[in-house]
Design goal:
heterodimer; A: 618 residues; alpha+beta; eight-stranded mixed sheet; 15 helices; B: 359 residues; alpha/beta; six-stranded mixed sheet; 13 helices; 17 strands
């Protein structure tokens, strides 16, 4: 809001060009590299929002060309298009259409909009912006060239023609800008698009770099995210200035009806209670003074008010974050990805929720700081990492407990990992208008920490499983290769027959060894569990294998003791050195099933490699 | 018992363990700094009582046992066929041993030493010889060597050799080498080739009536054994002249007290009466020698020496502390600062006089 107010005030005195020049940093155009990223970002954010609102799976094309030291930025989408009369306003006026009181999880909250990019283009190259848009089949496509009249903050149309465009519908923006194109780092157009692709797995993004290199971020899921709902402000999050403006703008006749109508979580009855506690007369809101507004704010604190609704948020979801991460880190072949989505929570009356993901291992650099991917409402945050509550939350977790390196258990950890954090909210509390860092709100930090710890626990379990598996592999090599060879060769030197070694094998192993693998094919995952008793005595116990759900089972071998909703139960009875195999097949669709969770009961778990102790109901 | 019988006993232990359903294992002394103790009788440092157990219960242990068995088999074959091999050849031979193959020559060298320790035999008994050639000798001494043709040849180590000197063979035992006559009254063992050559060129062997022996850095077993025999059989004192840094002090320690790696044969290799001449940290100050700053590795090595039982006497503790304090090290050849003859005209005579040798 400060920008808007400032702009509104100053608009009379100075041109928007001057305003732009003074506020370059806030607007995201303070360096040549960042300016180019911001132009792409504004256009792509708009494109994604437009497609999603229209229920269209986004197919976005981004191309950057270099022409005599200038860059031509082209962003094209398959969205619903923009009606001709609106095009000049959307692209040719700063802050047009900004919804000041709207509380909705949307990308548009960030940045100042595509018109800032148009202005930047015009100020640095003197060239107009070209927009082509088509609103549906049978409609003509309009091609408009425009500039912004910086004195009046109004669009000036240079050319307006109808063209043929094969696309069913969509919008294409072309801008000439001064910029600097960089590769191979997070703060780059590529880095921004890659991050965008991770948290928008429903979008297909094609990117052509200035050198002609083509990169396609493939769509990973054919389902659009749930549309976030718009909600009214909650009394706990409201500031005095906003309240005064709302009081002025409302059409409500009385204060009580104003409260009930303009705020969430307030019934008429509650509104009357607030009016009474505030000690203000229930008159027309326009008649109220500053003092009254202050009293109302006080009353908001005293009266018990329900938390705001949280169904207005649209999370990406654990499964989709996993898909997005897997798709965009495929070339690094990470060994493990874990994700977590928290329940919505509230700070100062504003609903928000946190989602996280951790990618571990593979070709990720082992000695370097972990990579942090920060997102607010599905938009990547590329700058001001150090000022962000996400970074702070990461620093305040003791990552050593989860298998990463960290000096003194504080600070950004080191190791082969990528940490992703997404904060979704109807009103992201940014530290400044540049909207690159989320402010330090205790509730948000706590949620981020809880979520990351959940992810990290899964990673820890995976790592210790891996460690145990490696140990088991070593033991297996020992008993299957080295020991027989030792027996043969020593007998040969001594000149006697090779001694039997089964007994020594059981002594060396002295465990029940469980190995498992999952092979997925044609929508069916086959899980094979092999158990060998390397103890010196017969072993009898119960094996539990987790399954996605009972109705997805295709086959179970051998006959289980019981099949429950989430688990299969077998009886195991093995003599020394005896082996047995347990198999089940399940249908898998959207849900991933790539790691078995095995448990045992009726045997000391220290005697078992490959399964944990069953803690559930017998 | 012959080396062959001793080795067979090792294989038998593993075989019998397996036969009796025991996890096979062998025990040997821990070869670490913390497990060397002073042997009063021989006045050398030897392994103490800490034993480690190599057991097939771990993969690494099982690999070690398998390699041991294969190495024993290989040595057995060499003894039977009357062949020898170098330690390097042993490493390459293991390429064909499948799972028992060594990962590096370090492993095979160490195993050969392990077998010496277990069987109380020398690797020469196993027909294994080192790659390293022995060092060079110049001085007034006559040596009788049995050549590979089986002839006895007498060599005067001044008159019968070139400027490179007499080369010490890998086997310096009595059946190979005999000292016939000696007129020199002491031995000066020199660390670097450059300094050895300087002393030779300046004819310091004649001037000081010494046998000059080039150590070539950390001296080979044969060099140490050669010094030990000269000292024991001819009563010649051994004086060690090295660079002034922590690594050179270890060279002296291995000559005088025995090396940690070969502590099982210290009484056979070490010359407890060997004296350290320099370059000492005090020399760096007293002679104002050109010097370098200590590196972090140097500092760590010096600190490790302060904890090394072999360096626990006043001389070494004081010198090492002094060196850490001045943070300097110097090479032998730094003495050239005062001219090429300074080392033979001034430094060595002065230092030898301090030690009671008049020149």
């Amino acid at each position: 809001m400060p920008i808007a107010e400032e702009l509104a005030k100053k608009q009379k005195e100075i041109s928007i060009a001057e305003f732009f020049e003074r506020n370059k940093q806030i607007l995201g155009f303070d360096s040549l590299t960042r300016a180019l990223i911001t132009c792409v970002k504004e256009a792509v954010d708009n494109a994604l929002d437009a497609c999603e609102e229209a229920g269209i799976l986004p197919d976005i094309f981004v191309k950057i060309e270099e022409h005599d030291g200038e860059y031509k930025v082209i962003v094209e989408d398959n969205g619903p298009g923009i009606v001709k009369s609106q095009i000049p306003h959307v692209f040719g006026r700063l802050l047009y259409g900004s919804r000041f009181h709207s509380l909705k999880q949307s990308r548009g909250q960030q940045g100042i909009g595509i018109s800032a990019a148009v202005l930047y283009s015009q100020l640095t190259t003197g060239k107009p912006a070209t927009i082509i848009s088509k609103i549906g089949e049978g409609f003509p496509a309009h091609k408009i060239q425009l500039m912004i009249d910086t004195k009046k903050n109004l669009p000036r149309i240079l050319k307006d023609e109808m063209v043929h465009w094969k696309k069913k519908s969509g919008t294409r923006v072309e801008l000439f800008v001064k910029g600097k194109y960089v590769k191979h780092r997070k703060q780059s157009v590529y880095g921004y698009l890659r991050s965008t692709a991770i948290v928008n797995p429903h979008a297909q993004i094609t990117f052509i770099e200035p050198d002609g290199n083509k990169i396609v971020f493939e769509r990973a899921v054919d389902k659009l995210p749930k549309q976030p709902k718009e909600i009214k402000p909650h009394p706990h999050g409201i500031e005095l200035g906003t309240l005064l403006k709302m009081l002025k703008d409302t059409k409500a006749q009385k204060l009580s009806s104003f409260l009930a109508r303009e705020f969430s979580s307030i019934s008429l009855q509650k509104a009357r209670e607030i009016v009474k506690v505030a000690g203000v007369e229930d008159v027309s809101p326009q008649q109220l003074k500053l003092e009254d507004a202050k009293k109302i704010l006080e009353a908001f604190k005293k009266v018990k008010i329900m938390a705001p609704p949280t169904d207005c948020l649209s999370p990406i979801g654990e499964a989709l974050i996993k898909k997005g991460l897997r798709k965009e880190t495929m070339q690094l072949s990470p060994e493990f990805i874990s994700t977590d989505t928290r329940q919505p929570s509230v700070f100062s009356g504003i609903p928000f929720m946190v989602e996280t993901g951790i990618v571990y291992g593979g070709d990720l650099p082992k000695e370097e700081r972990v990579e942090i991917l920060r997102f607010a409402n599905r938009v990547p945050l590329l700058y001001q990492e150090g000022d962000c509550v996400i970074t702070e939350a990461i620093k305040n977790i003791d990552w050593r407990r989860y298998g990463l390196e960290q000096k003194g258990g504080k600070g950004i950890p080191y190791g082969p990992a990528i940490i992703l954090v997404h904060v979704a909210s109807v009103n992201i509390p940014f530290t400044s208008e540049s909207k690159e860092a989320i402010a330090h709100i205790d509730e948000i930090e706590k949620e981020i920490k809880l979520s990351l710890q959940q992810c990290a626990r899964k990673m820890r379990v995976h790592l210790s499983k891996k460690e145990r598996r490696k140990k088991a592999k070593n033991k297996f090599l020992l008993i299957s290769k080295i020991l027989p060879e030792l027996a043969r060769k020593s007998a040969e030197i001594v000149g006697k027959p090779t001694p039997p070694i089964d007994d020594v094998i059981t002594q060396i192993m002295n465990i029940v060894w469980i190995e498992d693998e999952i092979v997925s094919k044609d929508g069916v995952a086959e899980s094979r569990i092999k158990i060998t008793n390397y103890k010196r005595k017969p072993q009898k116990f119960i094996l539990y294998a987790e399954i996605p759900s009972k109705e997805k089972i295709v086959e179970v071998e051998p006959q289980p003791l019981e099949v429950r909703e989430r688990v299969i139960k077998w009886n195991v009875d093995l003599k020394p050195v005896e082996k047995a195999e347990y198999v089940f097949k399940v249908k898998v669709d959207d849900e991933e099933f790539d790691e078995n969770n095995l448990y045992v009961l009726g045997i000391d778990p220290v005697n078992v490699i490959g399964a944990e102790k069953w803690e559930g109901e017998e | 018992m012959s080396a062959l019988e001793e080795l067979r006993k090792v294989a038998e232990k593993i075989y019998v363990d397996l036969l009796n359903s025991r996890i096979p294992s062998i025990e040997l002394p821990a070869r670490t700094k913390s497990n060397i103790v002073f042997d009063e009788r021989h006045r050398v440092w030897k392994y103490g009582k800490q034993n480690i157990k190599r057991s097939a219960v771990t993969l690494a242990g099982a690999y070690m046992l398998l390699r041991t068995i294969y190495t024993i088999d290989f040595i057995k074959e060499m003894i039977e066929k009357n062949k020898t091999s170098t330690l390097r050849e042993l490493y390459y031979i293991s390429e064909s041993w499948g799972e028992a193959k060594f990962n590096s020559q370090d492993e095979s060298d160490k195993l050969a030493e392990d077998l010496e320790i277990i069987t109380k035999k020398l690797r020469e008994d196993f027909k294994l010889r080192p790659e390293e050639d022995g060092a060079r000798v110049i001085g007034d001494i006559v040596i009788e060597e049995v050549t590979r043709k089986g002839e006895k040849r007498r060599i005067h180590c001044q008159d019968d050799v070139g400027d490179a000197g007499y080369g010490i063979p890998y086997n310096v035992e009595k059946e190979k080498l005999r000292f016939v006559e000696v007129n020199a009254d002491k031995i000066i063992a020199v660390e670097t080739g450059g300094m050895f050559d300087r002393l030779v060129e300046n004819r310091f062997d004649e001037k000081s009536n010494s046998v000059l022996v080039h150590l070539k850095g950390q001296p080979a077993r044969s060099t140490r054994r050669f010094l030990k025999r000269l000292n024991e059989e001819l009563n010649l004192p051994v004086i060690v002249f090295t660079d002034g840094d922590p690594w050179s002090y270890r060279i002296y320690a291995s000559v005088a007290y025995g090396a940690i790696k070969t502590a099982h044969i210290s009484e056979y290799l070490a010359t407890p009466s060997a004296q350290f001449l320099g370059v000492t940290p005090s020399d760096i100050l007293n002679y104002d020698l050109p010097s370098d700053e200590l590196t972090q590795e140097d500092i760590n090595a010096l600190k490790a020496e302060l904890n090394d039982p072999r360096f626990q006497d006043d001389f070494w503790v004081n010198e090492i502390k002094l060196q850490l304090e001045i943070n300097k090290k110097a090479e032998q050849q730094a003495l050239a600062k005062y001219g090429l003859d300074y080392v033979t005209d001034v430094y060595l005579p002065e230092k030898l006089a301090e030690m009671g040798y008049e020149i």
